[in-house]
Specification:
It is built from 10 helices and 17 strands. With about 400 residues, it is an alpha/beta fold. It has 2 domains: about 190 residues, 2-Layer Sandwich (VC0802-like), CATH 3.30.2130.30; about 180 residues, 3-Layer(aba) Sandwich (Rossmann fold), CATH 3.40.50.150.
Length: about 400
């Protein structure tokens, strides 16, 4: 399907295939007038925001860690968010997810929403009559204790749109604000810094009106006291950890550890035998040690050259790292010299049955090296991080004797 362009927002949307784990049934659906399927959603629907391309990983983590969670659907707003729709009875359990950026409870859903001016009146009525606002407010208090839920509530509306519409995004925002203000359940007043955030996502003719359950602490992580320019987002690091197929016996290596985000996120996913990290930059090691603190033992952080690691042969079972992209620092030309030296060392220190999870934007170079070093990919994910496209390679070395 070709991407359609939104005249008001300039964003395109790609609908990702809805691949489901074995045993998970397809969502119930009803047919709208245009022939596309409208989801049949209920008050227990929670929408998990991720970076585009990581929806499936967030769903995998949720189904593993949250009892009774069920996948409903997936959506993606190109360059901005992945959306994983789940049915969850106790959403507070989702607050522990490592691969999530934000959580939202469904307030209302509609499809189709008219693309002409009639759609604005339709949106106003949807907001005024949204059936799940009370449930969403209760879930907000459960997920983020201390959230206000009194009879007088200030609110703001955030709107994202994709597709072709005769009205502007600001027009849709104002229509939704009028509808919420007209509700009779509480005294709602629009405010720039409202107590409650409603997020409306219009994907072509499909409208999700949701209420934000979490705040910025979910995506920022409280351990990140030391930051480095270009540091990896914690939710992406966590997704790489999930892709590494964690086991209790893992010896995990991040040879380019920076602020230690990958190692800390892997530690939060479950037990391991040892975490090993290093960097050639003393400032990076200082940031890593500050972020790690006295936690996550056993862990070792060292200053080293990642092309000459002070490790024995076959010493590690997992390599999880964000390789240099050659954009903000370094260059594509320098990577052509660096990557082969890194891969030679990775092959030496990795157990024959070990697994690598590598992120980079150097796809052409990776194709060459995968052939040269007999690297066998088990999966390759395309992700978007703050507008930049990258690839996550889950792979092993082939041709190694055990």
């Amino acid at each position: 399907m070709r991407n359609r362009r939104d005249r008001s927002s300039g964003n395109s949307v790609r609908r990702r295939p809805e691949r489901r784990p074995a045993g998970v049934k397809a969502p119930s659906a009803v047919q709208d007038r245009s022939g596309a399927q409208a989801l049949k959603l209920t008050a227990d629907t929670v929408i998990v925001h991720t970076h585009p391309g990581l929806e499936g990983i967030a769903i995998r983590e949720a189904l593993t860690r949250v009892a009774g969670a069920r996948e409903i659907a997936r959506r993606s707003i190109a360059d901005r968010n992945g959306m994983a729709l789940l049915a969850v009875e106790r959403p507070q359990a989702l607050a522990a997810l490592r691969c999530a950026e934000d959580l939202f409870a469904l307030a209302a859903y509609a499809r189709p929403l008219a693309a002409d001016e009639k759609g604005l009146e339709q949106a106003r009525k949807i907001a005024r009559n949204a059936p799940y606002v009370e449930t969403a407010l209760a879930r907000r208090v459960a997920v983020t204790p201390g959230s206000r839920s009194g009879q007088r509530l200030g609110f703001r509306v955030v709107v994202r749109t994709t597709g072709q519409h005769e009205y502007r995004r600001i027009d849709l925002q104002k229509a939704l604000e009028r509808g919420i203000a007209e509700r009779g359940d509480r005294r709602w007043r629009p405010e720039t810094d409202g107590d409650v955030e409603f997020w409306a996502t219009l994907l072509d003719d499909e409208l999700f009106l949701t209420l934000r359950l979490t705040d910025d602490r979910m995506r920022q992580r409280d351990y990140k006291t030391a930051h480095l320019p270009g540091s990896l987002r914690p939710s992406v690091a966590a997704a790489m950890g999930v892709l590494s197929q964690p086991t209790d016996d893992d010896v995990v290596l991040d040879p380019l550890c920076g602020a230690a985000t990958v190692l800390i996120e892997r530690a939060n996913l479950g037990r391991y035998r040892l975490l090993l990290g290093g960097d050639s930059d003393p400032q990076a090691l200082e940031a890593a040690r500050e972020n790690v603190g006295p936690r996550y033992k056993p862990i070792e952080l060292r200053q080293w050259d990642a092309t000459a690691l002070p490790l024995a042969d076959r010493a590690v079972t997992r390599i999880i790292t964000n390789l240099p992209w050659g954009r903000k620092s370094g260059s594509h030309e320098s990577n052509r010299h660096l990557y082969p030296r890194l891969f030679s060392e990775f092959r030496r220190v990795l157990d024959p049955q070990g697994l690598m999870v590598l992120m980079t934007s150097e796809t052409r170079l990776m194709r060459e090296l995968m052939q040269e070093y007999e690297i066998v990919p088990t999966s390759i994910l395309v992700v978007t991080i703050l507008g930049a496209t990258a690839w996550i390679y889950v792979c092993r070395f082939g041709g190694k004797s055990s």
